[in-house]
Amino acid sequence: MSASASVAPVDQAQPDPRRWKALIFIAIAQLMVVLDATVVNIALPHAQADLHISDANRQWVITAYSLAFGGLLLFGGRVADLWGRKKAFIVGLIGFALASAIGGASVNAGMLLGARALQGVFGALLAPAALSLLAVTFTEAKERATAFGIFGAIAGAGGAVGLLLGGALTEYANWRWALYVNIIFAIVAVAGSMVFVHEREDERNRNRLDIPGVLLATSGLVALVYGFTKAEESGWGSAVTIGLFVASAVLLSLFVLVESRTRHPLLPLRVVLNRNRGGAYLGLGLAIIGMFGLFLFMTYYLQGIKQYSPVMTGVAFLPMVVGMITGSTQIGARLMNRVPARWLMGPGLLVAALGMLMLTQMHVDSNYWTLILPAEFLLGIGMGTSFMPAMSLSTLGVQPQDAGVASAMINTSQQVGGSIGTALLNTIAASATTSWLVAHHSTDQHNPLAAVHGYDVAIWWAVGIMFFASLLVFVLVNAGRPEHHTVAGSGAEQDAGVPVVMH
């Protein structure tokens, strides 16, 4: 054992004997939040027809959720630190379930959009509370690896599971069940967490809430996510798009300035300036840009070009789910205590990029079994292997009082990455499709050759982003094996520094 392990106090409390049962219910809550980002996508055409939502407004069913979720995550993370993670977790679950019930019972577009925004608000409280509970519950290196392996697999595979579940519920029940299903998840998670989830009182943050930080961070992140949404809708050069990006840059710059000077910051800069945590946030955020864009194109390709039903589209994503679970639990969790994190994250992102590279060869008549299935599996293995150490690094070495906001940062990088990926790659695909039509003197906007060409060009960009994410991880992340680190928990460091052994 290295000398740095002695940072933890000798009288550190024994691990909670109920911690593995607690993990089950924390994981269920995480699955509910992650799959909700995609479960509604497949149900959206049916909801649109049923509630007479216009084409111009249908994007708001997705955007209302991502704006509220992405914009309020840091606030939610700090509330969890101040209020108590278990309390924030349970309130988040109950609120998410109620918002889902309202959404499922919607009688018009306004009611559905309001419910989706409310889901985002409670999701922003729930997601960081779940990850920070995990961070302070599992502090022993080997157990932490297993716990984060399971959590990472769920975080990574949840989007694909959402496509499968959304397809099945829409085809065999009703689009409303894509929302009602959350009530079942929430009831199980609340009941289990009341019994098995435990939090130490001395790990709470007793400082007052940084209101200027909350306002600047929330408005800055909302402007950023909305900017990418408007770019997809109105173009990158439109005055509204540029104005939103400028506003976001100004607000987030002011946020950094305020956080560096206030006594009790919403986001202590030590959380993000640590190169290992910063590398995890950046690397995972970039990887999500590529992955979420790919979800979108594969759904279009399988349903629009291959004419798969919603259920068959979901089933077609299963190799990616299997790959993610394998990468997280069998590769990441087994190797995390043996090799430095960058040698899991970096190569994992390269393998994911290789899977994407295969998909650049998609044609209208491509064979699912020989091209799409192996590409999805490689993407899943790579992302699963990367997710797990990234989740663990995101809270590694933070003071227990900062665990919620550190957890919120990894969720923020995922949420903002997903919004950017969807808007950026969709815009690139649409441009490439238009260029193909012009070059081939065609006016058929539904030409499948043009559409697939657009997907291929956008996927090339996703490959480049994934390679860059891998490079960033290799450069920034330099933590040694996890047993050499101070981890979040009752033994985490109490000063602003973060002692880690450099590898």
TrEMBL record:
<feature type="transmembrane region" description="Helical">
    <location>
        <begin position="88"/>
        <end position="111"/>
    </location>
</feature>
<keyword id="KW-0813">Transport</keyword>
<keyword id="KW-0046">Antibiotic resistance</keyword>
<dbReference type="InterPro" id="IPR011701">
    <property type="entry name" value="MFS"/>
</dbReference>
<feature type="transmembrane region" description="Helical">
    <location>
        <begin position="117"/>
        <end position="138"/>
    </location>
</feature>
<feature type="transmembrane region" description="Helical">
    <location>
        <begin position="145"/>
        <end position="165"/>
    </location>
</feature>
<feature type="transmembrane region" description="Helical">
    <location>
        <begin position="235"/>
        <end position="258"/>
    </location>
</feature>
<feature type="domain" description="Major facilitator superfamily (MFS) profile">
    <location>
        <begin position="22"/>
        <end position="481"/>
    </location>
</feature>
<feature type="transmembrane region" description="Helical">
    <location>
        <begin position="209"/>
        <end position="229"/>
    </location>
</feature>
<keyword id="KW-0472">Membrane</keyword>
<dbReference type="GO" id="GO:0046677">
    <property type="term" value="P:response to antibiotic"/>
</dbReference>
<feature type="transmembrane region" description="Helical">
    <location>
        <begin position="339"/>
        <end position="359"/>
    </location>
</feature>
<protein>
    <submittedName>
        <fullName>Drug resistance transporter, EmrB/QacA subfamily</fullName>
    </submittedName>
</protein>
<feature type="transmembrane region" description="Helical">
    <location>
        <begin position="279"/>
        <end position="302"/>
    </location>
</feature>
<keyword id="KW-1003">Cell membrane</keyword>
<dbReference type="InterPro" id="IPR020846">
    <property type="entry name" value="MFS_dom"/>
</dbReference>
<dbReference type="GO" id="GO:0005886">
    <property type="term" value="C:plasma membrane"/>
</dbReference>
<feature type="transmembrane region" description="Helical">
    <location>
        <begin position="22"/>
        <end position="44"/>
    </location>
</feature>
<feature type="transmembrane region" description="Helical">
    <location>
        <begin position="416"/>
        <end position="438"/>
    </location>
</feature>
<feature type="transmembrane region" description="Helical">
    <location>
        <begin position="308"/>
        <end position="327"/>
    </location>
</feature>
<keyword id="KW-1133">Transmembrane helix</keyword>
<dbReference type="InterPro" id="IPR005829">
    <property type="entry name" value="Sugar_transporter_CS"/>
</dbReference>
<feature type="transmembrane region" description="Helical">
    <location>
        <begin position="371"/>
        <end position="396"/>
    </location>
</feature>
<dbReference type="InterPro" id="IPR004638">
    <property type="entry name" value="EmrB-like"/>
</dbReference>
<feature type="transmembrane region" description="Helical">
    <location>
        <begin position="177"/>
        <end position="197"/>
    </location>
</feature>
<dbReference type="GO" id="GO:0022857">
    <property type="term" value="F:transmembrane transporter activity"/>
</dbReference>
<feature type="transmembrane region" description="Helical">
    <location>
        <begin position="59"/>
        <end position="76"/>
    </location>
</feature>
<feature type="transmembrane region" description="Helical">
    <location>
        <begin position="458"/>
        <end position="477"/>
    </location>
</feature>
<dbReference type="InterPro" id="IPR036259">
    <property type="entry name" value="MFS_trans_sf"/>
</dbReference>
<dbReference type="Pfam" id="PF07690">
    <property type="entry name" value="MFS_1"/>
</dbReference>
<keyword id="KW-0812">Transmembrane</keyword>
